[in-house]
Amino acid sequence: MSESAAPAERHARVHELRLVVTAADYDEALRFYRDELGLPERAAFSSPDGRVTILEAGRATLELTDPRHADFIDEVEVGSRVAGHIRVAFQVDDSTATTARLAAAGAEVLAEPTRTPWNSLNSRLEAPGALQLTLFTELGEPDGPEKPEELGEPEERA
User: Fold this and answer.
1) Which listed residue, 29, 49, 58, 91, has the most CB atoms within 10 A of its CB?
2) Burial of 63: CB neighbours in 10 Å, binned 0-12, 13-18, 19+
3) Cα torsion angle, 19, 20, 21, 25, sign
4) 88-91 and 131-138 as β-strands: parallel, antiparallel, unpaired?
5) From CA 114, how far away is CA 116, in angstroms rounded?
6) Which helix (H) or strand (E) holds 75?
7) pLDDT in tens, 46-78
8) Do residues 69 and 92 touch, judged by C-beta distance below 8 A?
9) Is 21 exposed, middle or buried (0-12, 13-18, 19+ CB in 10 A)?
10) Which pLDDT tens digit goes with each residue over 76-100?
11) Taking the chain, what is the end-to-end CA distance rounded to the nearest angstrom?
12) Closest C-alpha to 53, from 71, 68, 31
């Protein structure tokens, strides 16, 4: 391959992103994510050394942000900086109903669903496994005159 080949062509393709969470209360975490959030079970294994369950979470992406933009996201969704360096976001059909269901299942609601400048309805929860979750529902194209770069849309590459 030439030196000018795109990075994806120079390296092996990644086929799956798997977020591995060690939960002190495995049963509570499994109930919450599988039974309440609705992530289908792909596989489960147990041995004398412990248990693991692999749950399907739809399409995976890795969202990288710098600290200033992370501050901005927290300000929009919660009103202040609350997330650590990792936050898990799930796109759901109805963030309002899902937030209520997960709160009833034991998650702490940090912020009720809020319409964002990028036109999604986002809520924030503290969930089992010590994970902070954003639940988001896409609302379509923004109504206002904002430009994509003002909304934090991806930058065009040269």
Assistant:
1) 29
2) exposed
3) positive
4) parallel
5) 6
6) helix 67-77
7) 999 999 999 999 999 999 999 999 999 999 999
8) no
9) middle
10) 999 999 998 899 999 999 999 999 9
11) 22
12) 31
For residues 126 and 135, the answer to whether their CB atoms sit within 8 Å is no
Cα(131)–Cα(124) distance, integer angstroms:
11
- Helix, strand or coil for residue 15? coil
The CB-based long-range contact list for 104-111 (8 Å cut-off, 24+ gap) reads 105/31, 105/32, 105/35, 105/36, 106/28, 106/32, 107/32, 107/133, 110/78, 110/82, 111/77, 111/78, 111/79
The structural domains of the chain, ordered by start, are 10-151 (3.10.180.10)
Q: Which residue has the tokens 């092996």?
A: 12
Give the whole-angstrom CA distance, residue 119 versus residue 140: 7
58: Cβ contacts below 8 Å, ≥ 6 apart: 91
Q: Which residues contact residue 11 at a Cβ distance below 8 angstroms, ignoring those fewer than 6 apart?
A: none
Q: Report how far residue 122's alpha carbon sits from residue 125's, in angstroms, rounded to the nearest whole number.
A: 10
Contact 95, 113 (CB under 8 A): yes
